[in-house]
Amino acid sequence: MKRPPPEDLLPWGLAELGLESPGLRVQLSVIAGDASNRRYFRLAVGSRSYILVEAPPHTEKNAEFLAVRELLERGGLVVPELLGADLTRGYLLLGDLGDRLLLSELSQGSADDCYQRAFLVLRQLGRIDTGDPAWPSYDHALLSEELGRFPHWFAQAMLGHSWTEADERCWEPLAKRLIESALEQPRVLVHRDFHSRNLMPQPDGSLAVIDFQDAVLGPVTYDLVSLLRDCYISWPPEQVKAWALDYHHHTQGAGELPGVSPEQFLQWFDLMGLQRHLKVLGTFARLYLRDGKQGYLDDLPQVLHYVEAMLTRYAPLMPEIENFAQWFALALKPLISTQPWSEAR
Predict the structure, then answer these.
(1) For 220-259, how does the pLDDT look when each residue is reduced to its tens digit (9 = 90+)?
(2) Contact criterion met (CB below 8 Å) for 210 and 102
(3) pLDDT for 96-119, tens place per residue?
(4) All domains of the chain, ordered by start, with CATH?
(5) Which has the closest alpha carbon to 320: 184, 181, 171, 147?
(6) Residue 219 forms beta bridges with which residues?
């Protein structure tokens, strides 16, 4: 059951908007949230509407959200307009981008056009210079932390697997290979969750970007694989490959990926996807077990399909992936098949 809006949230923001007139009708309604502790409300004031965000300051990256929002706006991306911020209490007042998500508009007939529009946004994002040498990056520590969610939250906490030293000896070479692949790629500004639920079509045909507070400098293929191997919608592998190569072609043609062959780009793309989806298995398990967000269980089978497809593709080429694939099949697949969310049940 959704909690009602806190009473002190209703009048907040009206002063910033100059809309405290007693003659205006004010309504506040709950709208869908995300994986965080943030809550979102639509504030209707007369004939206009805004988005109020309740973002607890002790858990949410509010200052980071504002910094990245400004950076993206300066870079020409469409982001929520900022109308007010109370970082002490954790309230943000934003422009209303509507209710349309790219996910709901994707179909076999529309996908190519939708993704071409998303590619333009992604390339625009990648050209942004933070101007800050201390800007956070996808370094070894962050990549390791993300991968560590798989053994802890998915294998042990979700499946009940007892992690042993033998398991670690199998896992460690795989993690090392995936991290090395990520770190050898050209670095760009990475959204970190660039997918169809975080892109919002606008009436003028543009795509607005949301949920960007975790942006870091990182591998050039990270956001692309988030988009094309989306946890919430899937496409035929050959179509995904064609889109990835098309992105590579246009990016290289603009001088942004000099000297990177299509084969190298595809391998980076695939291994980046494997890193991301192993992380996501742990993240979705954590969202369910720790935060009580059961809806993410429905998305686990799709993420598993992505993981197993990459293990199958690269096992003949890389011994560390072959060893992990064999371990995964023997140690985890039987446990996965007993889960209520498993397609094997």
Answers:
(1) 999 999 999 999 999 999 999 999 999 999 999 888 898 9
(2) no
(3) 999 999 999 999 999 999 999 999
(4) 7-95 (3.30.200.20), 102-336 (3.90.1200.10)
(5) 171
(6) 187
